[in-house]
Amino acid sequence: MQAIHGDPLMRVSTGMPDDVVVLHDALEALQEYQKSKIENQQSPLVLHLKNCGTALRFLQVHLEQCYPGEPIELTGDERLMERKGKLTSQIDSARILHGLNVPVQENESPYITMSRELAKNYSISNIQDPIEADWSAAAFWYEYVAIHGGVLLLEGLKRETLQGDKMVASLYSKYFGVITSYTDEGAKIYKSSFPLKYDKVSIDFENIPDLYPAIAFTCERLHITLEATGTSRLRFKESNRLTAVRLHEVRNDHRMAMALMCADFPVSKEEQGCIGKSYPAFIKYFEQVKSLSPKKEESVPQPEREKKASTKSISIGHITPIKGVNDEGKGKKFALSKLIHGTDTEYLWLHDDDIVRPQASRGECKLKKEDPDLIILPLRMESENAKPSLLEQLQIAEYAAIQELTMRTAKKDQAIMCSGANLIVRREVWLECESELHPEIPSGDDMFLLEAVKRKGYKIGVIDEEEYTAIVRPATNWRAFWRQRMRWAGKAPHYTDKDILDYGKFIVVANVLQLLFFPIIFIKFPYEYGLIKARMSKNHQSQITNHKLFLTALLLEILYPFYLLICLIGGMNNKKEW
Question: CA-CA 20 to 30 A from 485: which of 168, 273, 396, 536?
Fold first, then answer.
């Protein structure tokens, strides 16, 4: 971009990756060539690019656009010449940087997205900003920690990034038990104490080909079967990585060398020389980390034995995301993540900021290591008015039915609901599930967390006691009511859990049948009224008398099919907001 815009080239040092140094030196040589041409001292120019495919592809487009027809030759190592002419996303990236029209494709690669963003926002001031660290290079440290354990701080990695290879964090969290926690300095990674859940994983490498060697050797060392798709481009990298991984060979490929070293396969000093292409400091850091790492048997804890032997109380922290305070204008999930990454307690008690917190949460509350990984807690809806309006009464009755169903299903190991307004979760489990909480959807962190916890096989428990009950308020007007309900309904299409989907389908079908055949209400109402009565009794609810409760519940039963359909249809077009 600096060369394209005629700006001074940033300074590079020998400690930078070969890809950067080679490209920089070639651009500098082109500037000298241009100067000699102006001075009528032009001679043919040969640019030797070693084995740097990035430099080759960027310069191919650069020469076409800025030096058409000039006697300039691009050459390099034998492997680079074999790869010359292969179409990759870097060709399109270079064209975008030059301002050429590259149509937007469906499922566009993150590399192209980064290029579009840079081309749109480039200015000379960009080079004053700290250079973001490379997520593809971080993959080898994830590999190392997955195999050996330990804790590493990877400086310069950012949570908010356009780099597609950031997916390494979620993949290693989901499949290999490596948790990522962000700090101002970068990303801290460590091995979870929980046993791995998968003996076979399926990963599409179409948009993350650089992660393949690290993940392949991680799977091999952890005895996990890898089913890899989208691997066609791997044949055209610095080596044929499919073959190189199978044969455990470096083949002058920097990523192969690092992946093999992190998996404890032998790599000679001579073979390590290629690592400078992307990560010159890797060998120094690798030796430091290796010398400080604990013995392998100490880095693989026995969680089941620890849980049975330990009854020691552990700490719990309270997390309450507040709009306009913790969210930096980026929404509830950002605020929640920011607060959780900023604490180090073993359990987290999640609250909404508009509830009356449970009595148990106001003192020192401690849990034990053998307690469940996620604990569903009760909620009670109460009006602030001594005499609730009809709208408030309908909400109170509905909420009671929902809460009773929530508790009953959870106690049967078929949890279908939970609420982030009042929920306890093990911090390590939340961090492991973070990547699956749908950041593109403003709400639903609680339900998506429940789904992820069930998917990963963690233990879910219930505390259905008065002192653990939080109080929520009903909407006081119809506009607020519908906004809330539309927001709730808007996340429903994204649910994947079988229990949640089965109950949801049953409720929808039952209510549609009521619209088509009204007498079915005589079957539905006794059961649902029973749910309301049971929860009201546990809550010692006195805001609605028994006589009014029956009439309110009956009115709710009659209106519910219409309400449900409006929510389902309206939720599809719900405005995304906290």
Answer: 536
Q: What are phi and psi of 16, to 5 degrees?
A: -80, 160
User: Is the predicted pLDDT of residue 17 greater than 70, yes or no?
Assistant: yes
pLDDT at res. 284: 92
List phi, psi (to 5°) of 368: -115, 155
pLDDT at 129: 59
CA distance 359 to 361: 5
> In sequence order, which residues have a C-beta less than 8 Å from that of residue 272 and are 6 or more positions away?
257, 261, 283
544: Cβ contacts below 8 Å, ≥ 6 apart: 388, 393, 396, 397, 536, 552
- CA 28 to CA 26: how far, in whole Å? 5
Give the integer Cα–Cα distance in Å for 398 and 485.
12
Q: Measuring CA to CA, how many Å separate 271 from each of 247, 279, 288? A: 15, 14, 19
- The answer to whether 312 and 368 have CB atoms below 8 angstroms apart is yes
The kind and range of the H/E element at 154 are strand 151-155
- Max distance between CA atoms of the chain, in angstroms, equals 101
Provide the pLDDT confidence category of residue 150 given band limits of 50, 70 and 90.
confident
- What pLDDT shows up at residue 297? 32
pTM: 0.56
Cα distance between residue 348 and residue 271, in whole Å: 47
Per the rule left: phi > 0, alpha: psi between -120 and 50, beta: everything else, 421 is alpha
Residues 153 and 269 sit within 8 Å (Cβ to Cβ): no
Is pLDDT above 60 for 543? Answer: yes
